Amino acid sequence: MSAAINSNGATSDRRSGSLVYYGVDQLRPHPAYASSDIAVSAPILSALIERGDTAFQEPLLIARGRTIIDGYDRWELAKRQGRPTLPCIEYDLSEQEALVWLLQKLRPSRGVNNFCRILLALELEPGLKQHAHANQRHGGLHKGSSNLTEAERLDVRSEIASIAGVFTGNVNKVKQILTDARPELMLALRTGEVSIHRAWGWLKEPGHQLEHLDLHRDRCGITKTVNALLRVHRNREQQGPFDPGRLANALARLDSKRREGLLIAEIKVPGEVLLLSPKLCQTLTQQGKLIHETD
Q1: How far apart are CA 160 and CA 255, in angstroms?
Q2: What pTM value is reported for the model?
Q3: Are 77 and 15 spatial neighbours (Cβ–Cβ below 8 Å)?
Q4: pLDDT for 15
Q5: Is 6 helix (H, G, I), strand (E, B) or coil?
Q6: I want to staple 152 with a disulfide (CB 3.0 to 4.6 A). Which of 77, 79, 148, 202 is the partner?
């Protein structure tokens, strides 16, 4: 008896699942999961390791052909630790049904980002289009036509978005990204280094995708460094030595050439923060009183 998948991704008859034990090397990832190059994150594996043997008490969920639906993290850890077998609950699900359920399990809290879930959900697109064509024929509309109407195409995209747990607009953006993005940008999307919207915006300048990516990485690196420095200064529980009024006056007295040469950038850090490089600090100090006078 096959267990049908409902809109929530759960089987309509959970009793059809059977508790079985399989060798770790007998289990396999879903083909869509494997082709999307999704990997279990290090923090999730670390959390499992801390749980010890209790991490393997919950069975994996698998479909026909010993295809893993839920439990990739435990399977990966079991391979690394050389465990021989794992408990599994096996359901009589087709490959497509298994993918729908798999996507319901892979929410952001499980370490799989929106881009990767959309990649997986797009594997369902041919079947959803076929279903839409069947509805056409059943309704007597567009007989003999191999093309979907715009409304039907939107319905297919909406269904993909619903299964992946994202907005329909992100599905449209990912389809364009898959066509036009450089491999380096695709990898950054898979790892969550870059958001879908940001990468999609970079497609408008095809020849500058890698430049945008490098600049984004530089900014992220600067932000991390600044945040680390701010934590140190805030923990000291004392005000910095610079007087804001004197600083403003010193900046105003800079000659035009030096003002034009200043690099000014917005950095996303908490609070109201103004940072000075050592060279600028030295230049402003040479012009006059910049630092608080001490008693």
Answers
A1: 58
A2: 0.69
A3: no
A4: 45
A5: coil
A6: 148
